[in-house]
Design goal:
The complex is a heterodimer of chains A (389) and B (378). By secondary structure, chain A is mostly helical. Chain A has 2 domains: 50-150, no CATH class; 168-385, Orthogonal Bundle (MetI-like fold). Helices cover 67% and strands 6% of the residues of chain A. Chain B contains 14 helices and 2 strands. Chain B is flat, with a radius of gyration of 29 Å. Classes of the chains: A mainly alpha (389), B mainly alpha (378). Chains A and B meet through helix 1, helix 8, helix 9, helix 10 and helix 11 of A and helix 3, helix 6, helix 7, helix 8 and helix 9 of B. Chain A: The chain crosses the membrane at residues 21-42, 164-196, 216-238, 244-266, 318-341, 361-381. Chain A: InterPro entries: DUF3333, MetI-like, MetI-like_sf, Phosphate_PstA. Chain A: It comes from Halomonas salipaludis.
């Protein structure tokens, strides 16, 4: 008898050990997921934060006769290789616009070339020889080369010169595209949800629509791009690469998200409110318009914001409809070629130059900041207005 | 209640604007569809005339015994139902656009070769579309593309299913409420990161790391290896699996746990032998959803996987996927009706069919689970 007691307690010990092992294994899995997230953010920040700093050089610009035709003549020959090409390029134009500049000399902070920027950030650079590096070091000691906040990154459009490339045109493109997306998806999504939840008879057609919406939510996004290309662009002739076609494509993708969350919000409004409204003689539409929808609004807004954030991060369908264009100028038009933030990130990630890796990560930080604040707004909204009935 | 002044006003608006808007929309659509030119000005004039007639007819209706509310609401009902059909139209649109072009493709290249061929070489097919050359030498055998897709999906699932499921078990069964309230949003952040960002992470950070790792054990890895996009895609899918599994495990009735514990099972045994088997349909459903997402994922593989079709089982080699080839075909400077562009639609069709069937199976599984335990909030 005592033997079997020992056996059983031995067994029990190992069984409990197994139980604890499962606990720690599952805890480890969650910790692993958290670690991925941490590594990811640390990696993005370490790669992208330098993009918000930009090397600037204080140089003397001589607006001489020669400079009117050849901008290079305006600056010291030694410096002309380490400042951004864009600086000398605009000098003739400046002089044409303001003839009084001729013969004057101006001391000014200008953009350094991407190589100098990378050199000062401690990255390996191929484009600079030792002499130039020494010259840069001297200039740093004199205080004539400085790292300054890269305001241009937020105010300029795309460029092939890394030091000049900014995210502004992509931001504007994103805003335009999202206006189209939300303008289409929000009313149609809410109307569909209201119809299905409050009006639709429970018949085969309604069931078909429901199954269909659930399926749409799980269809790969790239197929929406193929739809946009074949139907919107080739059939309806919507201009390619524009916020209009991009927004319409994304609207179809966002639609199921908005419909599903709106239906959940409508369903959480208690029946007693509908009964009370019916009781005083309201029609179905009056019940919905005056009572159910206002009460469900916070939930609907939360769902729409989440749908918007999803659409904002989407790239694949936009590539198919051509929204990966190179857009150097900031234009706010629905029918002109535009790019969006994730597409800009994609374009930059394809550039071979080392400086663009930094730009890409910088763009990613901006994109993530926008998305996280949108999601945080949705969570706050839900917390603030959530009502338990 | 059903004959208020504002309801009469709305009735007047609907009767005036409704037919006019319908007419102009119809006109615009006919113009677009048939290409026939209807002068915009006369269309506008006609719409205005119709609006006037509508107003007149509407005014005739307005009498003290006329129920304006009922009239507007039938219009509203139609508008709402119309909005609901847009989702159906979207699916139809996807089907028509993909199938239409895919049929064009299969008229040029045989369906059988597409399904069973092992060489994907679009080659000079664009010259044939431009009327030069006969496009010979172009081969569209999709097997290597699907092999690559399934390889990367398999790697992703190998990462996502264990981590996702175990995280869900921890959150549902072990974690104190405080940990849960932190862990759930944390996993949601993973789901909210745009795929293009994951792609950059895979290409710039993970792939070189894997190459160095492989180097240190004497293996030769390509910078476009399949492992990097696979792992990163797995990270992306974790929240899809963990969140649904968490819900399902929570929905398993407590009486089952109590019964098991009362029989002397340990907590671990209860989870392994009672809770998980009960929740299995839901877990499988979550995994299938995650899988369909991995199959259709585009940006991660476009940025981190290779372009060259390669039939291999070595995940350290470069391989390409269906979605990569779709993007490649769509972004090249090709004629729209060249075989390569059309092939993208054929690939899209297969992708659509595969993901659709995965979704349907997943829906059926979750419904079975719901019916078994009468859970309503799944």
């Amino acid at each position: 008898m005592s033997d079997s007691y020992d056996q059983i307690s031995q067994q029990l010990k190992s069984r409990h050990r197994k139980s604890t092992r499962l606990k720690y294994m599952s805890m480890g899995a969650l910790a692993l997921a958290g670690a991925f997230l941490l590594i990811f953010f640390a990696d993005m920040l370490s790669k992208g934060l330098p993009a918000f700093k930009q090397a600037m050089i204080n140089i003397e610009i001589n607006y001489t006769e020669d400079a009117a035709s050849n901008g290079r003549a305006a600056v010291d020959q030694d410096l002309s290789t380490i400042i951004s090409r864009s600086v000398v390029r605009v000098i003739p134009l400046e002089m044409r616009n303001d003839p009084s500049l001729l013969g004057t000399t101006v001391q000014r902070w200008v953009l350094a070339s991407a190589n100098v920027d990378q050199y000062l950030k401690g990255n390996p650079v191929r484009g600079l020889d030792d002499e130039e590096k020494a010259r840069i070091d001297r200039l740093v000691e004199d205080g004539r080369v400085e790292m300054q906040f890269n305001a241009g990154f937020f105010s300029r459009g795309d460029s092939k010169m890394p030091e000049l490339a900014g995210i502004m045109s992509a931001v504007v493109g994103t805003v335009m595209t999202m206006i189209v997306t939300l303008g289409i998806a929000f009313p149609i999504g809410v109307m569909t949800a209201v119809y299905l939840e409050e009006f639709a008879p429970d018949n085969k057609l309604t069931q078909l629509i429901e199954i269909n919406i659930n399926n749409l939510a799980a269809i790969p996004s790239i197929l929406f791009g193929l739809l946009g290309l074949a139907i919107f662009i080739n059939f309806f002739g919507v201009p390619r690469s524009t916020p209009l076609v991009g927004g319409m494509t994304l609207a179809l993708m966002t639609l199921p998200v908005i419909i599903i969350s709106t239906r959940t919000a409508l369903r959480s409004v208690p029946e007693s409110i509908r009964h009370a409204a019916f009781g005083v003689g309201c029609s179905r539409w009056q019940v919905v318009k005056d009572h159910v929808l206002p009460l469900a609004m916070p939930g609907i807004m939360t769902g729409s914001i989440i749908g918007l954030a999803q659409a904002m991060g989407e790239t694949a369908p936009l590539i198919i409809v051509g929204m990966v264009a190179f857009i150097p100028d900031v234009t706010a038009s629905f029918t002109q070629a535009a790019t969006v933030m994730p597409a800009q990130v994609f374009t930059w990630s394809g550039e071979p130059s080392r400086a663009f890796v930094e730009k890409t990560a910088g763009g990613i930080i901006v994109l993530l900041a926008v998305l996280i604040s949108l999601n945080a707004a949705a969570v706050l909204l839900r917390k603030k207005f959530e009502r338990r009935w | 209640m059903h004959a208020q002044p504002d309801q009469y006003a709305w009735f007047a608006v609907v009767s005036t604007a409704g037919p006019a808007i319908l007419l102009s929309a119809l006109g615009a659509f006919v113009m677009l569809l048939l290409g026939s030119e209807i002068p915009t000005f006369s269309l506008l004039l006609l719409s205005l005339a119709v609006a006037l007639v509508g107003l007149g007819v509407g005014m005739k209706f307005i009498r003290s015994d006329f129920h304006a509310r009922r009239a507007i609401e039938s219009v509203i009902l139609w508008v709402l139902a119309g909005a609901a059909t847009i989702s159906i139209l979207t699916t139809l649109g996807i089907l028509i656009s993909i199938i239409g072009e895919a049929i064009n493709f299969f008229q040029i290249h045989s369906f059988w070769n597409f399904i069973t061929g092992t060489t994907w070489a679009p080659g000079n097919s664009f010259l044939a579309a431009a009327g030069r050359g006969d496009g010979s030498g172009a081969e569209f055998g999709s097997v290597p593309l699907f092999a690559g897709t399934f390889m990367i999906t398999a790697i992703a699932m190998a990462v996502a299913v264990p981590i996702g499921l175990l995280s869900a078990i921890y959150m549902a069964e072990f974690a104190p409420a405080r940990v849960r309230s932190v862990a759930k949003p944390m996993l949601e952040v993973l789901a909210g990161i745009p795929t293009v960002v994951y792609g950059f992470f895979a290409a710039i950070t993970v792939a070189p790391f894997i190459v160095r790792l492989a180097d240190s054990v004497g293996l030769d890895a390509s910078f476009n290896n399949a492992l990097a996009p696979g792992i990163v895609m797995g990270i992306m899918i974790i929240p899809f699996i963990s969140s649904l599994s968490d819900d399902v495990i929570n929905a398993v009735p407590d009486s089952m746990r109590q019964g098991s514990l009362a029989l002397g099972m340990t907590k671990g045994e209860t989870i392994r032998d009672v809770v998980i088997p009960a929740a299995l349909p839901g877990v499988i459903s979550a995994s299938l959803l995650g899988m369909s997402r991995a199959l259709g994922e585009t940006m991660i593989v476009v940025m981190a996987a290779g372009m060259r079709p390669n039939l291999t089982i070595n995940p350290l080699e470069e391989m390409t996927t269906v979605t990569v080839r779709i993007v490649a075909a769509m972004t090249g400077d090709l004629e729209f009706d060249s075989a390569e562009t059309l092939s993208a639609f054929a690939l899209g069709l297969v992708l659509f069919v595969v993901t659709l069937s995965l979704n349907l199976v997943s829906v059926i599984m979750i419904r079975r689970f719901r019916n078994k335990y009468r859970v309503n909030n799944l």
